From TrEMBL:
This is Aminoacyl-tRNA synthetase class II (G/ P/ S/T) domain-containing protein. GO terms for biological process: tRNA aminoacylation for protein translation. InterPro entries: aa-tRNA-synt_IIb, aa-tRNA-synth_II/BPL/LPL. The lineage of its organism: Bacteria, Pseudomonadati, Pseudomonadota, Alphaproteobacteria, Hyphomicrobiales. It holds the Pfam family tRNA-synt_2b. Residues 108-285 form the Aminoacyl-tRNA synthetase class II (G/ P/ S/T) domain. Keywords: Plasmid. It comes from the Bacteria. One of its GO terms (molecular function) is aminoacyl-tRNA ligase activity.
């Protein structure tokens, strides 16, 4: 049995995660949720004084916004759409017959105006663009959402539906890169407080296809993306639990995000993978939070 499956089985046996029969789709226990809630309070203690505007979007987003984002050009393998039955009574009877004999009953489902949110920040850009030019000094937002990535796996740290907490900064290139660097400096103290050894390294997104390899290389060469890595199911390949992303003016140009002087805004975001951080804590400190080191418990629960 490999390490990933072994750790997943332990999480199931302890009741921390609940098996649904689909890899990467799990229920969570009260104790698991308590760890996430405690870590989010820690995030608030480090970032709350920055004065970010708090917005909470649902786990689905406007399909037209999703299409405009260009996500399907880069990550079609990860996207999830919402389909629904839109037929008549005869179509309904056909659907039920397919289910009775074990045939595919989804073939006549039609796409709705909703897609599953791929990243917490995606609904934000068109929302802010509708407000008009950004104020002097830019803007800062605090987001949290369930996100979907179609990558079923036995690795408990690679879930298909997971929560992402993000801070998103919009402004000049210096403004947003200073913001990103400030969080890269902060997280060393955060993770030390909860007893986790981490590394931060340059990274790239999983762009699709041959053209994607060039995009990934460019992203790494320009150091547009860094990840905070923590060993969970592998020490050789530690898990990315946070990301620090500089989008340059890509989203600004795409959505018409402008500064007061009419120039295109730059954007950057810092993302916390909440389930992954909870799993890292459980892996390193044990499956019962009562037995965690007192310093860690104090940092999380006071």
């Amino acid at each position: 049995m490999d390490i990933q499956t072994s750790f997943l089985d332990l999480l199931f046996e302890s009741g921390l995660l609940i098996d649904t029969g689909v890899d990467g789709l799990y229920g969570r226990s009260a104790q698991f949720e308590d760890v996430i809630a405690a870590f989010e309070r820690l995030i608030d203690r480090f970032g709350g004084a920055d004065g970010a505007e708090v917005i909470r979007f649902p786990s689905g987003m406007n399909r037209a916004f999703f299409e405009t984002s260009g996500y399907m050009k880069s990550f079609p393998q990860l996207a999830g759409t919402v389909h629904s039955f839109c037929g008549n009574e005869l179509d309904h009877m056909s659907l039920l017959k397919c289910m009775e004999v074990g045939e595919d009953w989804t073939k006549d489902q039609e796409a709705t105006d909703i897609v599953l949110t791929p990243a917490a920040c995606y609904p934000l850009y068109p929302t802010v663009a509708k407000r008009g030019p950004l104020p002097e000094g830019g803007a800062l937002f605090d987001l949290q959402s369930y996100c979907f990535r179609h990558e079923p796996s036995k690795d408990p740290a690679r879930q298909q539906l997971f929560r992402m907490r993000e801070y998103v900064c919009m402004g000049t290139d210096k403004h947003v890169t200073d913001f990103r660097q400030s969080w890269m400096d902060r997280v060393a103290e955060m993770m030390k407080a909860v007893g986790l050894e981490v590394t931060i390294d340059v990274a790239n997104d999983p762009f699709f296809g041959r053209a994607g390899k060039m995009l990934a290389n460019n992203q790494r060469d320009q150091k547009l993306k860094f990840e905070l890595l923590i060993p969970i199911t592998s020490t050789a390949k530690p898990t990315a639990c946070m990301s620090f992303n500089y989008h340059q003016d890509a989203f600004g140009a795409k959505w018409g995000l402008n500064l007061e002087d009419g120039s295109v805004a730059h954007t950057a975001c810092v993302g916390f993978g909440l389930e992954r951080i909870a799993l890292a804590l459980l892996h390193h400190h044990g499956l019962d939070t009562v037995d965690w080191p007192e310093s860690v418990r104090k940092a999380l629960w006071g």
